[in-house]
Design brief:
By secondary structure, the chain is mainly alpha-helical. The chain has four helices and two strands.
Length: 113
């Protein structure tokens, strides 16, 4: 049974707008944690290697620097907006891939500082 406000195809547009701050927080968290995670992996402090997060981050970087886009950047607003949407979506996948690292980091003495 669908929850209130959910139709057969998922949350309604109002619910999606309410979740936007969470999406931006996930993107920021992915960007903040990726560097320290990579350093911990290289130094051998964190195993297993979160390959999924690394591949999503690599894909988002390649998409940003690639001259091939879903919508060309010379169409100023729309061309840049598609980059933001696609890379943002990829960063939420990076954040999902870093869940194990985030839990490991919080469990360490000092709480991941």
């Amino acid at each position: 049974m669908a929850s209130p406000g959910n139709g057969p195809k998922g949350p309604n547009p109002l619910q999606r707008l309410k979740r936007r701050p969470q999406l931006f927080a996930r993107m920021g968290r992915a960007l903040r944690l990726f560097g320290p995670m990579l350093a911990d992996v290289v130094r051998g402090r964190y195993r297993p290697v979160p390959w999924q997060a690394i591949l999503w981050m690599l894909a988002s970087f390649v998409y940003l620097v690639s001259p091939l886009d879903l919508i060309p950047d010379f169409l100023l607003v729309i061309g840049l907006l598609d980059d933001v949407v696609i890379v943002g979506w990829m960063l939420t996948r990076v954040d999902r891939g870093l869940e194990g690292y985030r839990l490991w980091r919080e469990a360490r003495p000092g709480g991941g500082q």
